[in-house]
UniProtKB/TrEMBL annotation, chains A, B:
InterPro entries reported in the protein's UniProt record: Homeodomain-like_sf, HTH-type_Tx_Regulator, HTH_TetR
Protein name: TetR/AcrR family transcriptional regulator
PANTHER family xref list: ACREF/ENVCD OPERON REPRESSOR-RELATED, ACREF_ENVCD OPERON REPRESSOR-RELATED
PROSITE patterns noted in UniProt: HTH_TETR_2
Record bears the keyword DNA-binding: yes
Keyword match DNA-binding: yes
Sequence ranges assigned to domain HTH tetR-type in this UniProt record: 6-66
GO molecular function: DNA binding
One Pfam family here: TetR_N
DNA-binding annotation, residue ranges on this chain: 29-48
Assigned keywords, A-Z: DNA-binding
Coiled coil: none
Length: 199, 199
DNA sequence: ACAAAGTAAGTAAATGTTTATTTACTTACA
DNA sequence: TGTAAGTAAATAAACATTTACTTACTTTGT
């Protein structure tokens, strides 16, 4: 039996993410992807059932999974609230800075009904994504350190600005006057931390 | 000369937004739109040069323009920082609650390169979008009331969580346990306000 | 007061292209 | 040599956009 070429498997994923980042999800086609990855369209269908399957797996595994792994690495329950949140902000920035195409598809996850639905279903079937963060925040509430909001609200308050700032970072990456420097990012992080503290 | 039917003009816009919200920008086609709006494909081309032109105008005029008008109405420079930010949060929530399709396309504006680019160019040509908010925040900085961040950073800290929360609101609208109630929203708003205050 | 001419708004159907996916074949290795 | 991995080319459907025509109203000459 002919062994599978892992380079081709990887090429499909990374070229797909690249094309999505450059031209948008709405302009990705299987034939364009095959040509750009230097493979036959059929090869994609050996690994994915159809286009939706490819997009969903790309989003769940390459984007959400890889991101979760990157930011939860080194996150411990014995960290203070400040340390934990700063850890996630820093790791997120570092991760996406070197994985811009993953960031682009992550953003599409917030708008595309296909990806959105896939995320909801995955969350139900496989247990909460970002469970370590959920757990970390729950502990801080129990300690009386931070305000007791539902998890989704805490997530919005602590991390929605971060996504916006990383987006801003990329938009200014080839221009003068980058507003998102590491110092600004840390100051912004301290701002969201301070807001959520119980006074 | 036969007068134009304004209902059809309006139908194109509202049906397009609806289809995008339901099936995603990546699944919108001109023929589908024509059929859903009960018009001929040609009619769309009488009002828009091509598909990109339609999407860009929909995004800039119907989504960003209408939203800006909705939230800046009643925003005055003599409001306190707290009043101003709460005003924008409340108006935003009210506006999007009754314009979910506009919210869906607004989200695509953050991911789609086409819409993103259109927004940048519009901002350069026509002057800053959300200028009243820019001006309001600048005044608060001058007064020494809030931390002096670049505008984009202030926007991220004050309003990115709001977008996330409205999204969350829609995702729970037909389910039990809605986490985004008006009270929670106001408490979250107070949290972002508190974070940005100069201490 | 009124019909008929002029015209932009509108339509149905066609255009050529691109799409997702499949068929029929070839390749490279265990 | 058997077989899964891979390919090039084909298929049918859907796509953006256009063509050739009709409609419905305004204008104009009477």
């Amino acid at each position: 039996m002919r062994p599978k070429n892992l380079e081709k498997e990887q090429a499909i994923k990374s070229v797909a993410l690249q094309l999505i980042a450059e031209e948008g999800l709405e302009n990705l086609s299987m034939q364009k992807l095959a040509k750009a990855a230097n493979i036959s369209p059929r090869t994609i269908y050996l690994k994915y059932a159809d286009k939706d399957d490819l997009l969903i797996k790309l989003y769940i595994e390459e984007v959400l999974g890889a991101y979760e792994a990157a930011i939860t690495e080194g996150l411990h329950d014995n960290m203070t609230f400040e340390e934990g949140v700063k850890h996630i902000w820093m790791k997120s920035f570092e991760y996406y800075k070197t994985n811009q195409p993953a960031f682009a598809l992550m953003l599409y996850g917030k708008s595309s009904p296909l990806l959105n639905k896939a995320f909801q279903e995955m969350n139900i079937k496989e247990g909460q994504y970002f469970a370590p963060i959920h757990q970390f925040l729950e502990l801080q509430v129990k300690k009386g350190k931070i305000k007791d909001f539902p998890f989704t609200v805490q997530r919005a308050l602590l991390f929605a600005p971060l996504t916006d700032l990383i987006n801003e970072y990329f938009e200014h990456i080839n221009r003068s006057g980058q507003p998102v420097t590491p110092q600004i990012l840390m100051a912004a992080c301290e701002t969201v931390i301070d807001g959520l503290l119980k006074k």
